[in-house]
């Protein structure tokens, strides 16, 4: 089991009871699932697919910890990702933008152009920025995940390296929507103001190596007394 520095001042304001212990447990269970998968899988799929996979597994594990209080959004492109159990009665249209719940986004972070990093290898020393994307600018509440690859007996595998939470994002915290023409997926990137809010809401940071705290506190300007 991996060790984490945990900010116990976080309160998840998502419309259903979600204790800190539940989320930490879900993170550990997600890491356990990832460790059981073959390392060759992560060398053959791209980072976007890996991010989606990690987010999906974490959502399932968070919902399971609530003992039926919350469920994963029943539709693939529903928002938010985890909703109260009552949402099972909602229509598909309502589930596309349900008023309460927990939205989860995952990213590996970006590295400077020209960085020569082996596929699915540790990246924390090279990360220069972390941000998340959304499909619209109205995302006001977000549980943001980052991940890195760590060595195991059977090769490098992903692990959740840090998590951040904010429930007061606003439209101005998101950039312009791209992909509005053609069949491209419409996305908007988080701006510096949104990243500052996420940094203020840091929740867990991997403590297996001091580099994770050093790197994320630098990127998000995390200050503690």
Q: Return the string of H and E elements.
A: EHHHEEHEEEEEHEH
Structural class: alpha+beta
Beta content = 15-25%
Summarize the main sheet: 5 strands, mixed
As laid out across the biggest beta sheet, the strand order is 1-9-7-6-4
Our Rg estimate from Cα atoms comes to 17 Å
Q: Please, could you describe this protein's structure?
A:
Helix content is 29%, strand content 20%. The protein contains 6 helices and 9 strands. The chain starts with a strand and ends in a 5-residue tail after the last helix. With 225 residues, it is of the alpha+beta class. The mean pLDDT is 93. The longest helix is centred in the first third of the chain and has 19 residues, at 47-65.
Note the topology.
Layout: E1 4-6, H1 20-36, H2 39-44, H3 47-65, E2 70-72, E3 82-84, H4 92-95, E4 104-107, E5 133-134, E6 142-152, E7 155-166, E8 188-189, H5 192-200, E9 202-206, H6 210-220
Parallel strand pairs: 4-6
Antiparallel strand pairs: 1-9, 2-3, 5-8, 6-7, 7-9
Give a concise summary:
With 225 residues, the protein is α+β, with helices and mostly antiparallel strands. It has 6 helices and 9 strands. It has a 5-stranded mixed beta sheet with strand order 1-9-7-6-4, with helices on both faces. Strands 2-3 form a two-stranded antiparallel ribbon. The protein has a two-stranded antiparallel ribbon with strand order 5-8.
